[in-house]
UniProtKB/TrEMBL annotation:
Location of this chain's protein in the cell: Cell membrane
Keyword entries, A-Z: ATP synthesis, Cell membrane, CF(1), Hydrogen ion transport, Ion transport, Membrane, Transport
UniProt-listed Pfam families: ATP-synt_DE_N
Role played: Produces ATP from ADP in the presence of a proton gradient across the membrane.
Gene name linked to the record: atpC
UniProt xrefs under HAMAP family: ATP_synth_epsil_bac
UniProt membrane topology term: Peripheral membrane protein
Protein name, entry field: ATP synthase epsilon chain
Bilayer-spanning residue ranges: none
Organism for this UniProt entry: Pseudonocardia zijingensis
Family annotation (CDD domains): F1-ATPase_delta
Gene3D superfamilies the UniProt entry points to: F0F1 ATP synthase delta/epsilon subunit, N-terminal
Length: 122
């Protein structure tokens, strides 16, 4: 399993389960899954359960999910590991966002997914 953003490789390793939200709904991927190519929602939380029992949560903004029977690859425009998210900054961004403006609504959606991935309340 690999999760790659435009600027860097975010996560790579062996995974037992991947959960992601696509434009057509949530998908859970186990080893041996049928080949699939799906567009991720503009703002989505992705969870990777490693084969070693660890769980990694990420905030992902745009991209694709590519599944083969052997590998899962998430190609994201931008992604952050949950423990890299500055919760205070995300809350401030949410408060500043003007939901009546399309750009503000997009900023609010990004802030929401960052807070969700970090496990923080709004």
């Amino acid at each position: 399993m690999e999760l790659v953003a435009v600027e860097r490789r975010i996560w790579s390793g062996s995974a037992s389960f991947v959960l992601a939200r696509t434009t057509v709904g949530e998908i859970g991927v186990l080893p041996g899954h049928e080949p699939t190519l799906a567009q991720l929602e503009d703002t989505a939380v992705v969870r990777v359960d490693g084969s070693d029992g660890t769980s990694t949560t990420l905030a992902v903004h745009g991209g694709f999910l590519s599944i083969t029977p052997e590998t899962v690859t998430v190609l994201a425009e931008y992604a952050e590991l949950a423990d890299e998210i500055d919760v205070s900054r995300a809350r401030n961004a949410l408060q500043r966002a003007d939901a009546s403006d399309p750009a503000g609504a997009a900023a609010a959606a990004r802030a929401h997914v960052r807070l969700k991935a970090a496990g923080a309340s709004e």
